[in-house]
Amino acid sequence: MISLDGTIVATPGAATYTTGTVKAQAFYALNAARKAAGAGVLSQSATLDIATAAHAAYIEGNMDFVHDENPAKPFFYAVTPKDRAVKAGYAGTVVETLGGTGASLNGADCALGLLNTVYHGEALLVGGYTDVGIGSHLDASGTPACVINLGRPSGYGQIPASGAIIGYPGNGMTVEGTFYAGYETPRPPIALFPSLTAGTPVIVSLRNADYINLQSSAKLDAKVAEFALKDAMGNVVPAHILAGADVTAGPGVVLNSDPLLFTGTMILVPKAPLPAGTYSATVSATLGGSAAAIAKTFSFTAK
């Protein structure tokens, strides 16, 4: 059983990334975003740093922007992200994301760019991860890019308290209003998002202490009563909602099952890029059993 107080970490351990470097910029931006979303902060892992540095060297040395390394190529360290973490000395669950700074050349955009996606954004926010390692390299154009590995040694890791919901973009954040859906791999369902661009994904996780405890006792019955995004005038933004396992739709809610999403996760993706302005997201659900209904409203600005 998970304590109803949850296991969210509010303050990370001391980090050794040099101030002003791509790694430091990515680290602090990622933690600020996670904290704003209610996901908890990550602590630097020296062993995950070794794994990400090795893969960054492989990518730059071969200009091969992939997750799985080829043993026949120079700078080979280990095949998969998990293999590299284990070789470096990290035991536990690991997820890897690869991102670039773009024209800003700022490491913060390695993290923020990945968060402005469906599957990579989810990977950086949910799953209970507690640790992070960051490697940096240059891409083919000489632009800085990042390898970000998140890890969870054992158990559930970071779980929000009873009644809490993870919601991104976090309250008060300013984010890009355009999501380049056609360039994310894997690609969000083309039947729902046929254009190359869509709006900022709004990522929600219902997986809190109540959710875990009800799931463990086979009493979980998560039903979504509302998940909507509105502009400053109160107009509902046209969108599709993707949902992971163990989440069902209540009356008037349409969820599109997505097996690539983590259990308890929902992602609202506007059908078109968001014009600059302020937006408000509202989500409410019941989890079943004796758990009280949960709800969250958070606002962000698109630029």
UniProtKB/TrEMBL annotation:
Every SCP domain range: 28-143
The protein's name: SCP domain-containing protein
UniProt cross-references to InterPro entries, sorted A to Z: CAP_dom (IPR014044), CAP_sf (IPR035940)
Keywords: Plasmid
